Amino acid sequence: QVQLVESGGGLVQAGGSLRLSCAASGRTFSSYTMYWFRQAPEKEREFVAAIPWGAGSTSYADSVKGRFTISRNNAKNTVDLQMNSLKPEDTAVYYCTANRQYWGQGTQVTVSS
Fold this sequence. Notes:
Blueprint (H helix, E strand, L loop, with lengths): L2 E5 L2 E4 L4 E8 L8 E6 L6 E6 L7 E2 L7 E6 L4 E6 L8 E7 L3 E2 L3 E6 L1
Parallel strand pairs: 2-11
Antiparallel strand pairs: 1-3, 3-8, 4-5, 4-9, 5-6, 7-8, 9-10, 9-11
């Protein structure tokens, strides 16, 4: 069982940056692939970024590639999402998930134009 709590969301102007963090509980955190997803109003939840449990490449949605960076610290049981050059279309509730099996409650990101 893994419990996830996201933080770091907020309101930012277009072009600005935010750093989201996801804190996980559970002794097997390091064995999970961690993801960030997002859901905008009246849209389906969509993949944003993923980072494997060990050595391996991160992956990103085309819409955020080059602007967002996912990272993890297995010693601290955290996974972060650094978001730069934010756009109004990045506005959504952002969720972290372990193996797409366990989900946090989400954190709101709003980007004003």
